[in-house]
């Protein structure tokens, strides 16, 4: 049988695509189907990224010219990610290899509408139109895709999460410990979060804001100092593995006040760990977090509402515990690997691939 060639970032890179693909691996997808994974991007300098892309492109062409590719599954973000992946989509279209476009970016609409120009928008529409299947992360993104393509094969398939076998007892968690994961900067609401923490700190001396991720670390540290909350803010850097598990197990609240999102893996992982979530109704988030059920939703940029809901959860540990339980149940029934992977596997079956 011909191979399914899957393109994405390297397994050890920072970001949502690698997190999703690593769940696929851990859940056994690569063992059940004849998948060859080719990485097109890595962390590091421009030289290392270019060398990796060229090596992968050459390997892809060897597979393509030898007739070994039966299906191409491409994980796509915006900007350079999309332009890189176009180097693989276009030859696949030329050789009549069916391709799955799997869109992850939470700001792809801004990229398309404000950054591409007429030629770029034409190429984006071409890829969406010619793809055999398009996967987006939520019904919200499915409705957006319908505004740029008439492709009838657009599917909303949520990101999957591995469910921890158990979660930390609530009484064993650290009171007031609030967790954030993501690329620090305005789009993730990092500065709004600091402003809200500054309002709460005088009334909640136990408040600790732990921020994991890359991005504007120096700027965030400087702003925390200006607000007088530096002792209560801890910058963790990019957090993986056992360190991430420990951070999730010790926190009592997860917060992500983003301005745009696809369907953030960090929110789903926090919910799976039994944490209530304070976040914004952007992208696919409202399909995961019901306001007042698994957490609270506040408008992007509304620092007053962010502080108010944060205060409510800090003041009422029993409410936070109940919301955390509801969040874990939501993941188990709707977003776990066991719930999501069969949907992707059915798409593969519909395209002629049966498990090996």
TrEMBL record:
Keywords: Glycosyltransferase, Transferase. Residues 50-159 form the Glycosyltransferase subfamily 4-like N-terminal domain. InterPro entries: Glyco_trans_1 (IPR001296), Glyco_trans_4-like_N (IPR028098). GO terms for molecular function: glycosyltransferase activity. Pfam families: Glyco_trans_4_4, Glycos_transf_1. Transmembrane segments: none annotated. The keyword Protein biosynthesis does not apply. Residues 178-329 form the Glycosyl transferase family domain. Belongs to the glycosyltransferase group 1 family. Glycosyltransferase 4 subfamily. PANTHER family: COLANIC ACID BIOSYNTHESIS GLYCOSYLTRANSFERASE WCAL-RELATED (PTHR12526:SF640), GLYCOSYLTRANSFERASE (PTHR12526). This is Glycosyltransferase.
């Amino acid at each position: 049988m011909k191979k399914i060639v899957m393109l994405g970032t390297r397994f050890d890179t920072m970001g949502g695509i690698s997190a999703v693909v690593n769940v696929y691996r851990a859940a056994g997808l690569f063992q059940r189907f004849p998948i060859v994974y080719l990485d097109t991007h890595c962390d590091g300098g421009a030289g290392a990224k270019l060398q990796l892309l060229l090596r992968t492109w050459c390997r892809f062409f060897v597979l393509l010219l030898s007739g070994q590719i039966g299906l191409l599954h491409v994980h796509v973000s915006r900007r350079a990610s999309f332009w890189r992946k176009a180097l693989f989509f276009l030859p696949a279209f030329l050789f009549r290899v069916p391709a799955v476009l799997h869109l992850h970016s939470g700001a792809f609409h801004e990229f398309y509408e404000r950054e591409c120009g007429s030629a770029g928008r034409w190429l984006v529409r071409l890829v969406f139109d010619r793809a055999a299947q398009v996967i987006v992360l939520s019904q919200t993104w499915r409705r957006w895709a319908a505004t740029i393509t008439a492709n009838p094969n657009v599917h909303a398939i949520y990101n999957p999460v591995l469910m921890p076998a158990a979660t930390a007892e609530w009484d064993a968690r650290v009171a007031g410990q609030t967790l954030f994961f993501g690329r620090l900067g305005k789009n993730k609401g990092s500065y709004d979060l600091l402003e809200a923490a500054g309002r709460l700190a005088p009334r909640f001396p136990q408040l600790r804001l732990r921020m994991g991720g890359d991005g504007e670390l120096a700027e965030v540290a400087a702003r925390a100092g200006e607000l007088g909350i530096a002792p209560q803010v801890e910058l963790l850097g990019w957090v993986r593995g056992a360190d991430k598990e420990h951070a999730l197990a010790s926190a009592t609240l997860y917060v992500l006040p983003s301005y745009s999102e696809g369907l953030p893996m960090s929110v789903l992982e926090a919910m799976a760990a039994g944490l209530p979530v304070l976040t914004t109704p952007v992208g696919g988030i409202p399909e995961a977090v019901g306001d007042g059920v698994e957490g609270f939703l506040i408008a992007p940029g509304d620092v007053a509402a962010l502080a108010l809901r944060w205060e409510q959860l800090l003041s009422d540990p029993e409410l936070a515990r109940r919301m955390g339980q509801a969040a874990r149940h939501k993941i188990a029934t709707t977003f776990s690997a066991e719930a999501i992977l069969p949907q992707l596997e059915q798409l593969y079956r519909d395209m002629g691939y049966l498990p090996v």
